[in-house]
Amino acid sequence: MTDQSPITAMDSRAFRDALGKFATGVALITTDSDAGPMGIMVNSFASVSLDPPLVLWSIDKGSKRRPTFEAAKHTAIHILASDQKDACIPFTKDAYAFGGCTVTQNAVGTPLVEGALARFECEAFAAHDAGDHVIFIARVTNVTTRDADPLVFYQGAFGHLPTGPS
Questions:
Q1: Phi/psi of residue 11, each to 5°?
Q2: Count of Cβ atoms closer than 10 Å to residue 165 Cβ
């Protein structure tokens, strides 16, 4: 591999725009905190392993929510449906924006948002430093699913992808 110069400030916008061409699902990560249930919206979610069942997501090192998620032993990852957009968008600004959501707790106290396309109840497995982010790997202990149109993120905007017969 050839050594290449780092992306300059001018190139970083082009890099970000190019990343925006990758349509992703939208995930709401939740955990319990000293101040109550906390959540954060991310589009950095991926499967890692089937055996053991592992998934990953990442958070900006500058996020005020990072210390809580780094200390969390349990989280829930909710893959959002398009009909959850209005209830969940407030999490982009407010870590405690559960007002528009129906929330329960599992046996270990993790906040669970009802209505997600898929929900992964997890326990902490590993965390890795990665540039300006921390990558969390979580072991999945329980899953639930439902059928609906997914909420997607593309070129800096939320949308939906209709499901059903093609």
A1: -75, -25
A2: 3
List the domains of the chain with CATH numbers.
25-151 (2.30.110.10)
10 Å CB burial of residue 80 (0-12, 13-18, 19+) is buried
Task: Note the pLDDT tens digit of each residue in 11-63.
Answer: 787 888 887 887 888 999 999 999 999 999 998 999 999 999 999 999 999 99
Count of Cβ atoms closer than 10 Å to residue 113 Cβ: 23
**Residue 91, exposed/middle/buried by CB under 10 A (0-12, 13-18, 19+)?**
buried
Tell me the C-alpha distance between 147 and 128, whole Å. Answer: 33
DSSP 81: B
121: Cβ–Cβ under 8 A, 6 or more apart, which residues?
74, 76, 106, 110, 112, 140, 141, 142, 143
Tell me the C-alpha distance between 94 and 162, whole Å: 28
Tokens 């270990």 belong to which residue?
A: 108
Tokens describing residue 10: 């001018």
Query: What pLDDT is stored for residue 161 in this prediction?
Result: 76
